[in-house]
Design a protein that fits this description.
Elements lengths: L1 H10 L17 H7 L1 H8 L8 H21 L1 H12 L1 H4 L2 H12 L8 H28 L3 H6 L1 H32 L7 H12 L8 H30 L9 H35 L5 H12 L4 H25 L12 H9 L3
GO cellular component, one term: mitochondrial inner membrane
Membrane topology: Multi-pass membrane protein
Function: Transport of phosphate groups from the cytosol to the mitochondrial matrix.
Length: 354
């Protein structure tokens, strides 16, 4: 499998306008003289070759850290958001939700569900970021250089949707346990207690009861997260950042990454929120169905908790991209620049007067 991916990667347009070339090849002296000693040192300094098995594995590690850390950090807000979705009469709004939760369970109660959150979203991050890179290289390799550039947004959308399909299969059991712990008082206070109780009472099928709505929430979210981020990053460097990306320090590049991630996160929250409400209700009530929930809540009801989710997902997405990019810097991985028009395409358009 990896050998075929490597062949695709070597011929991929993403190695041209959308990503750097090789990372560790020996550079002959005449070549180094032509491209400059500084550029040669940068290429030699990378820790792996772009689109190599090691590159994809390290991308997966970056995904584990970015998703596992950030989702665990916002567990208190996520807990209140879930409770607001499943019992709006009791929790009413974010502030009331925090007050009621603290009054009933103390400050420690705000951390309920942290273990399934950390494990589940670490697994999701592994698949989400790691497989996104795999599918992006694979799909772009099916196209010629100019087509890959012209339809790059569709490549981002297809790659992210494919990656999230598998990521949600890994996440679903832990998400079910998390929601049960957070929204059913007295059911369980930890993953070790909730998991065997769910298996004993309802069987293993209960862990995938919410998989289809989870796909409905996460796949549009991830498509927006990756495609919007890639396009926003491209536009920021083109119209906002006052100097070319290659002239920016790594710190400045990470700031731009954070900004692009936050913008993408706001759109992600809006697109995926109705399905998020349905997932929370399904995992809370074992007798509920998607149809019964929609009938009970109505269109207005599925938007409950959107405000805190925008804050949570915007911050979450920005931090995830920041951590993911920072891990690439830390591990000296190739960091593809924003998409650039292929030289052949630019010359052709100039010749056509466009």
């Amino acid at each position: 499998m990896f050998s075929s991916l490597l062949d695709v990667a070597r011929n991929s347009p993403f190695r041209g306008p959308l990503s750097p070339a090789q990372c560790e090849p020996a550079i002959a002296a005449p070549q180094a003289a032509q491209i400059g000693m500084a550029a040669a040192a940068e290429v030699q300094g990378d820790s792996c070759e772009f689109a190599s098995p090691k590159y994809f594995a390290l991308c997966g590690l970056g995904g584990i850290l970015s998703c596992g850390i950030t989702h665990t950090a916002v567990v208190p807000l996520d807990l209140v958001k879930c409770r607001l979705q499943v019992d709006p009469d009791k929790y009413k709004n974010v502030m009331t939700g925090f007050k009621v939760s603290v009054r009933e369970e103390g400050m420690r109660g705000l951390a309920k569900g942290w273990a399934p959150t950390f494990i589940g979203y670490s697994l999701q991050g592994l698949c989400k970021f790691g497989l996104y890179e795999v599918f992006k290289v694979t799909y772009s390799g099916m196209l010629d250089e100019e087509t890959a550039y012209s339809y790059r947004t569709f490549v981002y959308l297809a790659a992210s949707a494919s990656a999230e399909f598998f990521a949600d299969i890994a996440l679903s059991p832990l998400e079910a346990a998390k929601v049960r712990i957070q929204t059913m008082p007295g059911f369980a206070s930890s993953l070790r207690e909730a998991w065997p109780k769910m298996v004993q009472n309802e069987g293993y099928g209960t862990f995938y009861k919410g998989l289809v709505p989870l796909w409905g929430r996460q796949i549009p979210y991830t498509m927006m997260k990756f495609a919007c981020f890639e396009k926003t990053l491209e536009l920021l460097y083109k119209y906002v950042v006052p100097k070319p990306r290659e002239q920016c320090t790594k710190g400045e590049q990470l700031v731009v990454t954070f900004a692009a991630g936050y913008i993408a996160g706001v759109f992600c929250a809006i697109v995926s929120h109705p399905a998020d409400t349905v997932v929370s209700k399904l995992n809370q009530d074992k007798t509920a169905t998607v149809g019964s929930i929609m009938g009970k809540l109505g269109w207005a009801g599925v938007w409950k908790g959107l405000g805190p989710r925008i804050v949570m997902i915007g911050t979450l997405t920005a931090l995830q991209w920041f951590i993911y990019d920072a891990v690439k810097v830390w591990l000296r991985m190739p960091r593809p620049p924003p998409a650039e028009m292929p030289e052949s395409m630019r010359k052709r358009l100039e010749a056509e007067g466009k």
